[in-house]
Specification:
32% strand, 6 strands, 3 helices, 130 residues, alpha+beta, 4-stranded mixed beta sheet, 26% helix
Length: 130
């Protein structure tokens, strides 16, 4: 597989995402449904944004690793939230996770009216395998 990052500017580097990712000759592609702060028993979290974001990241990791894909090969990460302001106050969690795992992904952040039950944030990913 070949992976090419397309960044016509530099400003996005500080925000831990890229403008586009081109991949070719992939062995597989994993389309991960939106992951949220739901526990192993299917119970939605009613915790604050930071706690929900941490659990959501952990759930996303679990799905990707269970499928035998690598976190560094996330090429698309969509973020849905019911409260953009509070999400961005806690965005360091996501940025640190992205940097730690050497992820170079295209991303979209979208504020939505509501998510399932008490949920505040949802992460949806596309991952490729070399």
């Amino acid at each position: 597989m070949e992976k090419k990052i397309i960044n016509p500017w530099k400003w996005q580097d500080a925000r831990n995402y890229v403008q586009a990712v081109e991949v070719s000759n992939v062995q597989g592609t994993l389309y991960v449904s939106g992951q949220t702060a739901i526990d192993e028993n299917g119970i939605s979290s009613d915790a604050d944004m930071r706690s929900q974001l941490q659990q959501t990241i952990e759930n996303l990791e679990k799905v990707i690793l269970t499928a035998n894909y690598e976190l560094k090969n996330i090429v698309r990460l969509n973020i849905y939230t019911t409260d953009s302001e509070t999400l961005f106050q806690n965005f360091d969690l996501l940025q640190n996770w992205i940097q730690k795992n050497e992820i170079k992904q295209s991303s979209t952040v979208l504020e939505v009216k509501s998510l399932f039950e008490t949920l505040k944030v949802e992460l949806e990913a596309t991952v490729v395998r070399f």
